[in-house]
Every structure is written in C-alpha cells, then in structure tokens.
Structure prediction request, 131 residues.
Amino acid sequence: MQSISRPLAAIVLGAALAVAGAALAQPTVINVELSEYKFAPMQLSLAHGQAYVLHLTNTGGKAHDLSAKAFFQTVAFGPGGAAKVKGGDVDLDEGESVDIALTPQTPGAYEMHCTHPFHSMLGMKGQIVVR
Prediction:
C-alpha cells in the first residue's frame, strides 16, 4: 500500500508544481488609456526580462497612437506583438483596444508620446522606465 501512495503523492506534487509554475509564468498586464490629451498612467515602470502585455485602449473621441520607437527597438515581442507595432508606433482608432505581448530587454528610460498633430504638445506624453 505504501509503495502505491508514494508514486501517487509524487504525481500530485508534480502536477501542483506545474500549475504553480504556469501561474508564475503568466505575463503582467499593464493597462494604458489613451484619451484627449493624456496617457494614463503617464509613466510605466517595467522590469527587464519580465513578460508583459500592454493593453492599450483609446477612450478618446479621436484617433491616437503610442509612439515609443527607442523602447520598442529593445524588446522581445511575444506572439503577434511585433505586427501591432509599426515603425515604433501603435495606432488606435476611437474606441479601439490592442494587446502587445513583450519582454523588455534593456534597462533605461524611454519617451512615449502621441504623434498626432499637437497631441504631445497638449500633454500626451510620458515615459517607460525599465529597471
């Protein structure tokens, strides 16, 4: 009886560790709202080597983008992430949302802003800090 319960206990423990490991491997979701004329939050704080999903939502009444060319050049994109970033910009129409899976590779401070005319000048800018 004892020889049967040890293998069973090992299987149960192994399954529990696999579930715990999968939960730890899930990327952290960072919600970023784009509106007239701001990003919320204005500063993103990320850890290099950690997986994230940037969930960008345009809640404004006009198109916006998040431009962070230097930052996007230093990340490893997850599945489908690179296709959503064109030339370092993510364009969002009114009411649109997009998820970008990525893992920052290089510590530093990176500018983000909206490239639409006057949006940055009116306050639509911020910073991505990778530590």
Summary: The first helix runs from residue 2 to 24.
